[in-house]
């Protein structure tokens, strides 16, 4: 943008825009040892994720964990890798979601809105996308962590990284962060529709529907992280929306890491217990804490957790995919965005 009173050598001032920057967890650039090591090192060095003092944790992380885990996790990533695109499913799905959100938001608000995504760990980095938005003229940014539930280990650290990126800006934009949306009717409705696509009514339903949420150390709940309570509420609201009997739908937590007690019951133990002790033969599992399918759903749920159920005597295991780029999901996310742009873009 140029105006008459500007001297010839005045820096270019772009037309002001409003940015909507979605943020997901991040994923390795590849599944080889060094890509995995780089990703896990960044992730597991984050104090919001693992809060032990560095003098105690770093020797363990840099020693045994980053020697062994990159091989193990790399082998798991290889089984789910999107070889055509050369990237992990989390990356492909996040890009597809954000392309749809961009189309809807641009149709609604025109070229004054700029929509993009970044990752908390790895690429595209939060810093690079904040730099790009500011350079493109965004004088306002709505930052949107793509997690339905708030946890300091996910949304909290995503926001931290956003604020770190702002520290580097000469011309800081005005900013907002989007709130969690675990109890919104449109998000619950999107979850319910994903169940009803597979089981149109309770008559068709399996003996149990397991809502398996990513876990975290129990200690974090005691220290005030609201994630556990928000997960429980999502299951309750989903049960009410589906109209199924409450005893058919359960909450469990997966992906235990390290020696501490994590939120319970553990999914892998509960599905085995159901088969062994209650004689349950048919279950379905869904993962409402994940906005996109990823290693934890495609490999852990459909691999390890499914095997635990079948080895314990279970016969039918169905995985209900995450909301990904479902239309109902895009509608729910668009509503959260438009509500949080209120007064900026109408
Ligand atoms: C070690 C502590 C971890 C905590 C606490 C944690 C919380 C947490 N994570 C998600 C969402 C995702 N996690 C993913 C992968 C993943 N998570 C951890 C550890 C913790 N997560 C690790 C070590 C990994 C890497 C995979 C592995 O090596 O096994 C992913 C998937 C990434 C992908 O590329 O597909 C997501 C998404 C939530 C919602 C959450 C909240 C409590
Ligand atoms: Fe995780
Ligand atoms: Fe709780």
Automatic annotation (TrEMBL):
Its EC number is 4.98.1.1. Keywords: Cytoplasm, Heme biosynthesis, Iron, Lyase, Metal-binding, Porphyrin biosynthesis. Pathway: Porphyrin-containing compound metabolism; protoheme biosynthesis; protoheme from protoporphyrin-IX: step 1/1. Its main location: cytoplasm. It catalyses: heme b + 2 H(+) = protoporphyrin IX + Fe(2+); Fe-coproporphyrin III + 2 H(+) = coproporphyrin III + Fe(2+). It is found in: Cytoplasm. Fe(2+) binds at residues 214, 296. InterPro entries: Ferrochelatase, Ferrochelatase_C, Ferrochelatase_N. GO terms for molecular function: lyase activity. Belongs to the ferrochelatase family. Catalyzes the ferrous insertion into protoporphyrin IX. This is Ferrochelatase.
């Amino acid at each position: 943008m140029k105006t008459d009173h500007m001297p010839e050598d005045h820096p270019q001032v772009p037309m002001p825009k409003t940015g909507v920057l979605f943020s997901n967890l991040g994923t390795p650039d590849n599944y080889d040892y060094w890509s995995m090591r780089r990703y896990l090192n960044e992730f597991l060095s984050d104090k919001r994720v693992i809060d032990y003092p560095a003098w105690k944790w770093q020797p363990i992380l840099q020693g045994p964990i980053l020697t062994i885990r990159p091989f193990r996790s790399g082998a798991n990533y290889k089984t789910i890798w999107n070889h055509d695109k050369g990237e992990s499913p989390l990356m492909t799905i996040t890009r597809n979601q954000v392309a749809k959100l961009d189309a809807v938001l641009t149709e609604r608000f025109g070229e004054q809105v700029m929509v993009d995504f970044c990752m908390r760990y790895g690429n595209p980095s939060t810093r690079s996308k904040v730099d790009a938005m500011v350079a493109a003229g965004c004088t306002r940014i709505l930052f949107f962590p793509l997690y339905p539930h708030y946890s300091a280990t996910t949304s909290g650290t995503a926001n931290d990284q956003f604020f770190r990126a702002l520290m580097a800006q000469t011309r800081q934009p005005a900013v907002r962060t989007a709130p969690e949306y675990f109890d919104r009717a449109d998000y619950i409705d999107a979850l319910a529709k994903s169940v009803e696509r597979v089981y149109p009514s309770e008559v068709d339903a399996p003996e149990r529907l397991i809502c398996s949420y990513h876990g975290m150390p129990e200690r974090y709940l005691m220290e005030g992280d609201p994630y556990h309570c928000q997960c429980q509420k999502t299951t309750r609201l989903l049960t009410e929306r589906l109209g199924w009997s409450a005893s058919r739908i359960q909450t469990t937590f997966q992906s235990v890491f390290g020696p501490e007690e994590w939120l319970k019951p553990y999914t892998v133990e509960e599905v085995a217990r159901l088969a062994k002790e209650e004689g349950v033969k048919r279950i379905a599992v869904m993962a409402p804490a994940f906005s996109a399918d990823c290693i934890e759903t495609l490999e852990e749920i459909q691999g390890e957790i499914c095997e635990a159920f079948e080895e314990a005597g279970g016969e039918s295991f169905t995985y209900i995919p995450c909301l990904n780029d479902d239309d109902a999901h895009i509608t729910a996310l668009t509503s959260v965005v438009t509500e949080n742009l209120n007064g900026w873009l109408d």
